[in-house]
Amino acid sequence: MLNMELSAAINTSIFNAIALLDGISTGICALDHNYNYIAFNTAHRKVVRRLHGIDINAGDYYPDTVSNDPAVKKNELKILSRVLNGENIHSITDSGEPGLYRARYHISYNPVRDAYGHIAGITIFSQDISEITRSQKENAENTQLLNNMTSNLPVIIYRINKHGTFTLSIGAGLKKIGLMDNEVVGMSMIEMFPDLTPYINNALNGQIVQFETTSAGIERELWFQHIIFPDENSDGGIVGFALDITDNKHAQQAFLKAKEEVEAAAESKNRFLSNMSHEILTPINGIIGLTNVMVQEYSREEKLKMLKFSGETLLALVNDILDYSKLQSGKVAFKEIPFDLPLLIRSIRSSHDLRAKEKGIRFRIRRDVEVPDVVTGDPMRLTQVLNNLISNAIKFTNEGYVEIDISLNRSTSSHVYIDFSIKDTGIGIDASMKDYIFKSFTQADADTTRLYGGTGPGLSITRQLLQLQHSDITLESSPGKGAVFSFTLSFKKGKENITQTVQNAGNHIQHFAGKKILLAEDNEINRIVATRFMQNWLLKIDCAVNGTEAVKKMKNNHYDLILMDLQMPGLDGYEASQEIRTFNSHIPIIALTASVIPEIKNKVTQAGMNDYMTKPFVPDKLFDILARYLTA
Fold first, then answer.
1. Strands (E), 163-208
2. pLDDT at 276 over 60
C-alpha cells in the first residue's frame, strides 16, 4: 500500500512539474514502467498531433505515437528499455509522417527515480532543433513568448558561453533568490557555483545534463531542478532551465516522514496486539479448561472461584481495550458515589490472592488508620487503576512481596487526599524506559515480554485515568530492585452510612415483590443469567427473543419495566422501543448493550428509552437501575 502511495505521490509531483512548464515550447512528457503516458505538456501534445496526426491522452501507449514504421517503433522500444535500466539517452532525429509536418528534434530520455533510488518511470524532453535555425524574426517571436512565460512561471532560464560566463538570466524564479533579470550576466557560473563545474563541463562538451541545486531564498531555502544542454545558436555555449521544485521537495519529505511514523506505529501496534492476544487467550483457556474439569468432578467450589477469577481477568482486559478508545476521544465519565474503601481494597486483594499464592510471593496491605472508611468518588475507576498496577506487580515479581500502601496525604473541610502506592520486589525498570512504558501500544522490552507477558494497555490507561482526575502517576525503580508506582487521589468526604445503604437494598427488594419485568434478549445465556438475578430479588420475569415478540407481549400484558436488548434479529431494540412508544408512553424501557460507542446514550434517548446499561450483567448495577425505576 505504501509503495502504491509513494508511486502516486511521484506521479503527482511529475504532473505538477510538467504543468508548470505547460507553456514552453519544449515538448515534455512522462511515462510509467509500461511506457504509458502519465502526463505531458501542451507542446508535446501539439508535436504528436503535428508530426503524426494523433491526439494523445493520459494512459496512451507512447510507442504507438512515435511512428507507423515498425523498424522505427522497434528502435524506440530499445531506447526506452535502456532508460528503464538507468541510462540517460539523448538523440537527434528527423520525425514526422509522410504528408505531414517534418522536423528535426533533440530528444532527451531520462529515468525518474523515487525516494529509494528505484526507477519509477521516464521523462522525455523533445526540442525542435529546426526552429532554432530559422529566421531571426521567428527567434524574436519565440523570445517574446519566452519572456511572457518567464514572467509568470517559477523558472529561471539562462545561457552560459563556452567560458562558463552568464550571457542571459531571466525568469520569475530569480525574484525568489533576490535577483533581477540578467543581474548575473557577465559573472562566472563556475566561480559562483563551483560544485556545478562537472555538470557545466559535460554540457559544454555537448551533453544534456539534469541536476538539482539548493539556494538561499528570501523566505526559505529553495530547491531547483536544472536541465542544461548545448546552445546551437552560440559557439559552444549552453542553455539551462531551472524549475522551482521546493514545494514538491517538502511534500516528498513530509510524505517520507509520515511513512516512517506510520510504519513505526504499525509495528508498535502489531507488538501490542500480539502480546494482548496471548493475555486474552490465557484466561479464556482457563475458563474453558476449568469448565471441563467441573463437568467431570463433583468438588466444584474452589474451581468456581478460579473460574470466576479467570472470567474477571478476561473482562478487565477487554474493558481496558474498550476504555482506550473512550480515553482517546476524551469521553470518559466519572461517578461520585459513596463507597466503603476498606471493603473495596479487600475485594481487590481477594481477586489477586490466588495468583500471588501460585507464584509464592507475599501480598499485603498497609492502611493508615487516619484514612476514612467511607469516601465519595468513582470506585470502579479506582478499582481499575489498582487492578492494573497490582496485576503488573505480581506478573513481574518472582520472589519477595507485593504491597499496597494507603495513607492520608491531607484533609480539608470537604475533601480527603489519599496516597496510594504499589510496591514490589520484582525485576524493576530501567530509567530510560520509565516514560516509555506509559505510552500507548508499547512494551518495556521484547525479551521481558516473552518471559513475563506484556503490560497490555493498562499503564497507558492508568495514567490517562489519573490525569483526567487531576492526578498523575510516579515511578521509582531500577533493574533488579523492584518498582514503586504512586499516585494521589482526592475524594469528597463520605456523607452516607454504608450500612444504611445495605438496609435500603433490602427495602428495595421488598418493593420489588410482585413487579413484572419484560426481558427482550435474543441470547439464551444472557436471558438465563439476568432471569436468575432478578428472580432472587422477588421479580416476575417474562422473556421475548426478538423485538417483534416484545411488542406483541407488551400489547397483550401488563409490565412494570422493560429490559430491551438493542441488537436482535428482525426488529431490533431501537425499532421495538419506538413502536412501543406509539401506544405506551410511560413504562420505563432500559436498553441493554455491549456497545461502548460514546453516542449510544443519544441514540437510546432518541428511540424513546429511559436509560441503558452495559453487558455483561453485573448484579449490583442491574439491581441499582431496577431500584431507580421500580421504586421511584
1. 166-170
2. no
Top-confidence residue, 324 or 180: 180
Residues whose CB is less than 8 angstroms from the CB of residue 74 and which lie 6 or more positions away in sequence, other chains included: none
CB atoms within 10 A of CB 532: 12
Q: Are 239 and 228 a contacting pair, CB within 8 Å?
A: yes
- Are 176 and 154 in contact by the 8 Å Cβ rule? The answer is yes
Q: What is the pLDDT of residue 507?
A: 52
Helical H segments across 151-196, by residue range:
189-192
- Scan for cell 476521544, then name that residue: 329
Interatomic CA distance for residues 632 and 620, integer angstroms: 18
Each residue's pLDDT tens digit, 344-354:
888 788 778 88
pTM, rounded to two decimals: 0.42
The rounded radius of gyration (Å) of the Cα atoms in the chain is 39
Domains of the chain by start residue, with CATH: 2-128 (3.30.450.20), 136-244 (3.30.450.20), 262-324 (1.10.287), 337-493 (3.30.565.10), 498-630 (3.40.50.2300)
How far is CA 172 from each of CA 14, 23, 71, 157, 284, rounded to the nearest angstrom? 20, 14, 44, 9, 69
Q: What is the pLDDT of residues 391-430, one digit of tens each?
A: 889 988 999 999 999 999 999 999 999 999 999 999 888 8
pLDDT digits (tens, 9 = 90+) for 79-107: 999 999 999 999 888 877 777 778 888 89
Mean pLDDT of 288-312: 55
Decide: 607 and 578 in contact? Cβ < 8 Å.
yes
Name the residue with cell 525574484: 175
* Beta-sheet pairing, 589-593 with 103-113: unpaired
Burial class from Cβ neighbours inside 10 Å (0-12, 13-18, 19+) for residue 15 reads middle
The 3-class SS string of 478-539 reads CCCCCEEEEEEEEEEECCCCHHHHHHHHHHHHHHHCCCEEEEECCCHHHHHHHHHHHHHCCC
pLDDT band (50, 70, 90) for residue 613: confident
Cα gap 224→604, rounded to integer Å: 59
Whole-angstrom distance between the N-terminal and C-terminal Cα of the chain? Answer: 58
Q: CB of 237 within 8 A of CB of 159? A: yes
DSSP string of 299-328?
Answer: --HHHHHHHHHHHHHHHHHHHHHHHHHHHH
Eight-class DSSP state of 228: E
- Cell 536541465 belongs to residue: 227
Q: Is the Cα dihedral 9, 15, 17, 20 positive or negative?
A: negative
pLDDT digits (tens, 9 = 90+) for 459-498: 888 888 898 899 999 999 888 889 999 999 999 987 655 5
